Amino acid sequence: MAFSNLLLFPILSHPILTLTLTPLLLILLTLLYRISPLHPLSHIPSPITPRLTSLYLTYHAWRGTECRAIHALHRTHGPILRTGPNSIDISSGHALHGIYVANGGFAKPAFYANFDIDGHRSIFSETDPTQRAPRAKAVVALFSTASLRQGSGVIGEVIDHFVRRLLAEKAKAKGKGRRVNLLDLTRGLAVDVVSSYLLGRRYGGLDGPAPTASDEKRHGKYEHGPDEPHMSASGMVDSFVAVGRFWYLPTWAFTWAERLDATIHPPLAAAHTSMAVVDDFVARCVQDAAAAVEAQTESPTAPSKDGGGTGTFPARLLQAGISADETRAQCKDLIFAGTDSTGMNMAVIMWQLARHPACYAAVKRELAATSSPVDAQSLPYLRGVVREGLRLSMANPSRLPRVVPPGGWEFDGLHMPAGTVVSCTPYELHLDGSVWAEPEAFRPERWVGATVTEEMGRDWIPFGLGTRQCIARNLAMVELCEATRAVVRSGVLDGARVVEERIEILEWFNSKVVGERVELVWD
Ligand code: HEM
C-alpha cells in the first residue's frame, strides 16, 4: 500500500475526521500551490506572505498602511511585485499605457462592487463596460470644456462665497491662536460646486456646519469632532471613505466586516444625521429633475422653470431611462466623489502655500503681472501649484487595480495570465525619485517651461488614466485653479502658518486625513 493511502485510509473511513480534515487539507494544498513553481505568477518577485494570502493586502488596507508597505516591498524586490497570490503592482510608468489605455484599458475587478450605493452600481463602481456606457454617455457632456465655460458663473459664485467664508474665519482667528480647519471649508466649497453645477441646487455646505433643526430632532444632536461640528455632508463622506478599509474583500465578507465593525464601533449620531441630510437633498434634486423632464415632455418648446431644468446630471440620467432610485444613488456618489477628493486637494494646496511663502509670493507676482481676465489654468506658475498639490496630496494614493483580459498580458518580457489583478499606484509614481527631483518637495516651478519632462506628464496620475479616469477631471481642474487664484488674490493667506508639519493620512482608496483636520493659524 502506498504511503499516502496508509495516511488517508484511516481519515477517510471516519466521517467526522473527513469533514474536518478535508477543508484543512485543501487549504494546505492551495497554500503550497501558491508558493510553488507551478503557480503561473511564481516568476514574479515577492516575499512569502503576499504569495500565500491576499490577507496581506487586506490587512494593510485596513490599517491604512498599504502604500508604505508596498513601497517597502518594491524597494527590496524591484518594480514588478507580486502583492498577493493573484495580484501584481508595477512601480513603473511604462506599464500605464498597457493597463489603462490600450484597447480601452483592462476592466475593473469585482471588488469595486463594495463601493456600490444603496444596492446600485455607480458609474465609478460598475465593472461591466456595457452597463456603464449608457450612463456615462448621458452625463459626459456636462464635463466638457464648453459646458464648464457656460457654467463658469455658477462655479464663480460658489468660489466667491468660499473666499468670503475664509476671510471671515481669518478675522475671527487672527492674533488669537485659534486654529481654522481648512478641510471643512474646502469640503463646503467642493459640495457646493458639485451641487450647483451638476445637480441644479446649491447644497449649502459653505453656509455653516450645523444641519437643520428638524434633522437634529429626528436623528439626535449633530456632533462630529471633539471640538466643533463639521460641514453637514462630512459625516456621509467619511462613511464612504471608510469603505476603503475593507474594499479588497469579496462582497459577502465585506458585508460581514462592515456589520462587525458597526457593532464594535457604532456610528456616531452625526453620521446618521449627515446621511439623512444628504439623502433629503438628493431626493429634492431628483424630484426637480423629474418635474423638469415631465414638463418638457408635455410641452417641448417651453423654457425650463428653474436653473437646472433638463440639463442637470439627474435629469440626463432620467431621460436615458435610468430609474429614479438609481439616479438618487448616482447623485450621492457624485456628492461623495466631488466633495472628498476636491476638498482634500484644495485644503492641501492652501496648506502648501502657507508653508512655502516664496511660492505664495510667486503666484501673487504672476497674478499682478496678468492684466486681462484669463482662464486661471493658463497661468503657468499657478497651474504648477495645483499640479504639485495634486501630486503630493495623496487624496487617492493606493493602487488602481485592473484585471488582465483573456489571452494574458506581456510586460517587460514577463507573462501575466488572464484574471491577474494588475495595478500602478499614484503613491509609487508620484514619489519616484527617477522622475521627480526631490520627490517629496513642493516645487511648482518644476512644471514651468523646459523643466517639464515627458516622464512627468506620463506618471502624473491623480485622476487615474484611460477610459475609467475621473469623469470630472476638467471640472476639478477648473475648480482648483479658479479657487486658488481667488484665494491668493484675496490675500487671505497673508500671515498664515501651518499647525502641523505633515498631514497624516490613512492610505485608503480615498485617503482619510487623520483627525479630519488641515489647519492654519494667523499671527
Ligand atoms: C481633485 C479632485 C478629484 C480627484 C483627484 C479624483 C480622482 C479620481 C480617480 C483617481 C478616479 C479613477 C479611479 C479608478 O481608476 O479606480 C476617479 C474616478 C471618478 N471620479 Fe474623480 N476625482 C476628483 C474629482 C471628482 C469630482 C469633482 C467628481 C464628480 C463631480 C468625480 C467623480 C468621479 C467618477 C464618477 C469617477 C468614475 C469614472 C469611471 O469609472 O468611469 N471626481 N476620480
Write the layout of secondary structure elements.
Layout (H helix, E strand, L loop, with lengths): L2 H10 L2 H21 L12 H5 L2 H9 L2 H12 L2 E5 L2 E4 L5 H6 L27 H11 L5 H6 L1 H22 L6 E2 H18 L13 H7 L14 H8 L9 H14 L4 H30 L14 H7 L4 H32 L1 H12 L11 H14 L8 E2 L5 E3 L2 E3 L4 E3 L2 H5 L23 H6 L13 H18 L5 E3 L6 E2 L5 E2 L5 E4 L1
Parallel strand pairs: 2-7
Antiparallel strand pairs: 1-2, 3-11, 4-7, 5-6, 8-11, 9-10
The protein binds protoporphyrin IX containing FE.
Write a concise synopsis of the structure shown.
The chain is α+β, with helices and mostly antiparallel strands and 523 residues long. The chain is 52% helix and 6% strand.
Structural commentary:
With 523 residues, this protein is α+β, with helices and mostly antiparallel strands. It has helices at residues 3-12, 15-35, 48-52, 55-63, 66-77, 96-101, 129-139, 145-150, 152-173, 182-199, 213-219, 234-241, 251-264, 269-298, 313-319, 324-355, 357-368, 380-393, 426-430, 454-459, 473-490, and strands spanning 80-84, 87-90, 180-181, 402-403, 409-411, 414-416, 421-423, 496-498, 505-506, 512-513, 519-522. The strands form 4 sheets. Strands 1-2-7-4 form a 4-stranded mixed β-sheet. A 3-stranded antiparallel β-sheet has the order 3-11-8. Strands 5-6 form a two-stranded antiparallel ribbon. The longest helix has 32 residues, at 324-355. The radius of gyration is 25 Å and the shape is globular. The relative contact order is 0.15. Residues 210-227 have low confidence and may be disordered. Residues 123-124, 136, 194, 334, 337-338, 341-342, 345, 395-396, 400, 462-464, 468-472, 475-476 line the site of protoporphyrin IX containing FE (HEM).
